[in-house]
Amino acid sequence: MNNAPFDAVSLGIMWDRLVSLTDEIVSTLVRSSFSTIVYESYDLSCVVLDADTNSIAQGTFGIPAFIGSAPVTLRHMLKKFPAETLKPGDIVVTNDPWLGTGHLFDITMMRPVFRKGRIVAYTVSITHLPDIGGNGFGSASTEVYQEGLRLPICKLYEAGRLNELIVEIIRTNVRVPEQVMGDVMANVSCNEVGGRELLAFMDEYGLEDLRALSAAIRGQSERAMRAKISEFRDGTYRNRIKVEGFGEPVEFAVRVDVKGDSVEIDFDGTSGCVRAGVNVPICYTNAMGLHAIKSLTLPSIPNNEGSVAPIKVKAPPGCILNALPPFPTGGRHAMGHFVTPTIYGALAEATPDRVQADSGMMNLITFQGRRRDDRAFSCLYFAAGGYGALENLDGWATLPHPSNMAVVPVEIWETLTNMTIESKRLLTDSGGAGRWRGGLGQEVVLRNDTGHTLTMLGMGNRMEFPARGMFGGGAGTLRVHAVDGSPVHAKGRIDVAPGQRITVTEAGGGGFGDPRQRSREAVRGDVLDGFVSAEAARAIYGAES
Amino acid sequence: MYRIGVDIGGTFTDFALSSASGGRMAIHKRLTTPHDPSEAVLAGVAALVAESRIEIGSVTDIVHGTTLVTNAVIERRGAVTGMLVTAGFGDIMDMGPERRYDLFDLRIKYPPPLVPRRLRIEVDERVRYDGSIEQPLDEAGVIAAAKKFRELGVEAVAICFLHAYANPAPEERAAEILREAAPEITVSTSADVFPNMREFERWTTTTLNAFTQPMFDRYVKRLEDGLAGAGFGGRLYIMGSSGGTLTTDAARRYPVRALESGPAAGALMSAHHGRALKLPNLLSFDMGGTTAKGALVRGGQAIKKYAMEVARVHEFRQGSGLPIRIPVIDMIEIGAGGGSIAEVDERGLLRVGPRSAGAMPGPACYGRGGTRPTLTDANLVLGYLDADFFLGGKMKLDKAASEKAIAENVGRPLKLETLRAAWGIHDIICEDVARAFRIHATERGFDYRNSSMVAFGGSGPLHALSVARKLKIPRVVLPVGAGVMSALGLLVSPLAFEVARSRRIHVADIDAKDFATTFAALENEAAGYLKRAGVAEADIKIVCHLDMRYQGQGHEIEVTLPSTNDVAGVFADLGELYGRAYEKAYGLRLDEPTEIVNWKVEAVGPTPSIAEGRSGTAAGGADRALKGTRQAYDPVHGGLSAWPVYDRYALAPGAVVQGPALIEEHESTCVIGAGSSVTVDAHFNLIAELSA
């Protein structure tokens, strides 16, 4: 270790303090947010960066989409507003997909932290807004212009003064202006709190600037990460998967080079963009790639510039994993989530005891309509498919991966929307067979009891290509969306008349290893609980009775 | 007339006796009897009464705290439990929150549901979100289910229907039918156990209630019979998780409300000390062998909440336990205690806990085969603990073993000298506890900097001043009887019962009459439990709360309503009350419609008085209590120096001890760093003032 002037004790303590500071900012933000996706799913992040734009601490909770994006956004912001021109009380924002996090819904907000007249740090917060105008949260657009308001990098506050014009532009362009501005202002106050706490932290430890501490944290993270990557078997690994698009399937191709203590991931050979809001700007591909390697190496290491340094993620410009304007990106996660399992699949031979079979993944559906009392609503329904199995671990039923959400309880959903959920059941035999079984998917039946026509905006996947098993494990079952029993496109915009039923069938997770090697006791338990049918137990698992 | 508090812990069962006049107090400690915990309780009560030379007939109340319910869940030792559930929704229990509590750890774990899928039976019925009936209960289906439950050997059933909080009638009818068809099966219904929205959490709470009910019922009965046989003619109360005591009737009906009742009593005792010392805002810090527990006291009352997790299966991680919805003292649990193991973490830095060496093999210095360095080893190496005076000298510690364990596992890999490594272990635990308090307080809008701390438990006084310093808390109270705080806390808890119901409605959509009627029904229900236990109506205090939010927000803020008979006035003032609460929490108000989510009513009986223990005014210098000096670590200079060691039992009121100093008692040692000073108050509590 060479982290002078910090030893293993003082570095650990200060590092943890910085991370907990970002966690405090996150908790302030979550509790005052109007956005379901923020307060239920932590679709947000807070980051502290040093004066040289290196990220040094990020909130522990938050979806993977935001790993690595804050420093890039900050650098874009400083290109427009150079550091030496910034004043205390300035707050800079943007929601540009190519400067920020990949879609218009996320607003990235930055505030410089001044100490004795000079910038010692930046705090950045990112949240998914309740609405951004345009076509709404979905994949129905064919160009980014239809997806809503695109704010270039601009100063929301200049030396402490709110720019009313920007507020008016936002309010004029969104469906729920009070909520959107409520969330924007929550970001403002969380950045202020973050800056204050950061200065108190520096006072407490007598730090004039953060450079030395930043270097020590990043250095330590990078060394730990490199040591862990060295445990992978060296080599060049490839994988190809198919993901249903609109019309032709989209193909992801990946080559992962593991060389000593570094990893390079290249998506050369991946299909081009599509005319639907599922294209993925490189910032998101990068985040998901970093997430994949982190989860296979040091899952609990805090995110910072050092922990991502040994990993390079590339994709040729113009392919669907490096989408360029004006391709629409609203539902970039629908494609982008496949980055993680694609990499796991490639690395199966490099690290067989750590990789995970494919998951059924999560499903987000936006419902827009009116309640019985005529109040308008726009709510996200979420349901999870099964979790992919790992060596020595059955996949959990209905658990999302790689991204995350929390289910909206039936009782809350019905109160919010006045729709009725008729049933929510696990699907027997939906998990891929294996020595370790894939997680089960589910079927949810919703009925439009609102008395009004509803609009349903889907971004579903795994309708043609199931979650694959690993090392002899079977695939999970597919996802299906249906209205009154007839299958509909899971990525479309569909009107649902009063009284109609929507059936959402969630995909199962992939199995791991040969099902005939599964413990007999586990097979019997699965049959007793109905997770596996008696027929499947006989035919696939080789059960005797 | 006397009252007795009994707290069953994992190792010891603690007893405290207090006279109703507040004049006398006695304590007692004996080993817990895990095969039948009532055995130690009965023996201890007899011993305490005999030692105090009083008649058991003069004991009016026994208040009992126990971890029995918690342990039954952790060890899965409960009834064979079935579930009768709305058709189409039985699988909710396997689906859970459909959320990962850790985004990066692929191998996260969840607790299996208390009722396996094979013991869940679905029945046709459906209540809508507004409480109206869409499909009436299939009564024949319930009878068929009763038969099937019998065949399956089910002893307890949780009846869990959707939206039962909005209309409990179908659940009640199903319970009636089930009880008639299978009288030997005990039944819990979700609207009765805790009528709040969110089916997974409410149903999990209900299944836990059902799962523990037969066992807890038998236990309370055995205890009552045993006490009656010994001549006890008073009332037995069970401590609830929320800091109020329950009648045995209520506790047998709702064993889930007795989860974590021991730690709750400790927090309550902290609040009591705070009130006596006129310190209304404080942090209650309890640290033992495996975990530390923290609670916040605001305005003399421990802060409560309505959600907890029990039986966490993954390193105390939030999200890895069963989510339970009941009124509880809002406590944080930190995987930090004397047995916490120090190791090099995946960053290549030092981490302490949450893994623990437990009692077996225990810290390296116990000499029971443990080789991993623990917090207790570090405190021994630093000189804060005395190898010859651990547990009052009952157990000899091996300091050389501690040094070896720390040098090999921490010092060498991290290139730290042993003493520096030991200090690192000590300091990191203090930092972890401080961090947990800081986030806990921030989330609750609690300004910890201007509060005080009350510290207890075997390891609490070793770390309290250092934690307080990190939090910029100026004052720490180290109360007398730190080893039996929970038993003492039982004696200061009032009889109380709380009901909470989800009814989500826009403020604009109700009128004052509807508002008053809703609260009146809840008040009757809550106060009924106290009245039936013999509390006079005039002695019952009613407190009403609402969980409110701006339309569309995901988190509510609790608004406590002013206690007045002018309900219409309160109703008219709701917007203002919420606006003020919101502003206090977030520093701004919004121009959005408000809605009510949960309605809560708490009925509280009178708070019993308690003897203040020994008291005296004989001023005496600290010198008489000086036992000698010991080489202990001074973090400012980074080395050992001679610290004076005092005998706590010889320190008289008025004595002042200047840090650095160590004050020893049987179960712990108070570490007083340089710059702090401690005064002994009239009741023998140590009051430490920290330098700025």
Q: What are the SSEs and their pairings?
A:
The complex is a heterodimer of chains A (545) and B (692).
Chain A: H1 8-31, H2 36-41, E1 44-50, E2 55-58, H3 69-80, E3 91-94, E4 106-115, E5 118-128, E6 154-158, E7 161-162, H4 164-173, H5 177-204, H6 211-229, E8 235-243, E9 250-259, E10 262-266, H7 282-296, H8 305-308, E11 311-314, H9 332-336, H10 339-346, E12 362-370, E13 376-384, H11 410-417, E14 420-426, E15 442-447, E16 454-458, E17 480-483, E18 486-488, E19 493-496, E20 501-505, H12 520-528, H13 534-539
Parallel strand pairs in A: 10-11
Antiparallel strand pairs in A: 1-2, 1-5, 3-4, 3-6, 4-5, 6-7, 8-9, 9-10, 12-13, 12-16, 14-15, 15-20, 16-19, 17-18, 17-20
Chain B: E1 2-8, E2 12-19, E3 25-31, H1 37-51, E4 59-66, H2 68-74, E5 81-86, H3 92-95, E6 120-123, E7 126-127, E8 133-135, H4 139-151, E9 156-160, H5 169-181, E10 186-189, H6 190-193, H7 199-229, E11 235-239, E12 245-247, H8 248-253, H9 261-276, E13 282-287, E14 292-298, E15 301-302, E16 304-305, E17 308-310, E18 322-324, E19 328-329, E20 331-334, E21 340-344, E22 350-356, H10 375-381, H11 399-414, H12 418-443, E23 452-456, H13 460-471, E24 475-478, H14 485-491, E25 496-506, H15 512-532, E26 541-550, E27 557-560, H16 567-572, H17 574-586, E28 594-604, E29 626-634, E30 639-647, E31 656-658, E32 661-664, E33 669-672, E34 677-680, E35 686-689
Parallel strand pairs in B: 1-4, 4-11, 5-6, 5-9, 9-10, 13-23, 23-24, 30-32
Antiparallel strand pairs in B: 1-2, 2-3, 7-8, 11-12, 13-14, 14-15, 14-20, 16-19, 17-18, 21-22, 24-35, 25-28, 26-27, 26-28, 29-30, 31-34, 32-33, 34-35
Provide an overview of this structure.
The complex is a heterodimer of chains A (545) and B (692). The termini of chain A are far apart. In chain A, a hairpin with a 5-residue loop joins β12 and β13. Chain A is an alpha+beta fold. In chain A, strands 2-1-5-4-3-6-7 form a seven-stranded antiparallel sheet, with helices on both faces. Chain A has a five-stranded antiparallel sheet with strand order 14-15-20-17-18, covered by helices on one side. In chain A, strands 8-9-10-11 form a four-stranded mixed sheet. The longest helix of chain A is centred in the middle third of the chain and has 28 residues. With 692 residues, chain B is of the alpha+beta class. Chain B has five domains: 99 residues, 2-Layer Sandwich (Nucleotidyltransferase, domain 5), CATH 3.30.420; 141 residues, Dna Topoisomerase Vi A Subunit, Chain: A, domain 2; 224 residues, Nucleotidyltransferase, domain 5; 109 residues, Dna Ligase, domain 1 (2-Layer Sandwich), CATH 3.30.1490; 63 residues, no CATH class. In chain B, 31% of the residues lie in helices and 27% in strands. Chain B has 17 helices and 35 strands. Chain B is globular. At the A-B interface, α1, α2, α5, α6 and α7 of A face α3 and α12 of B.
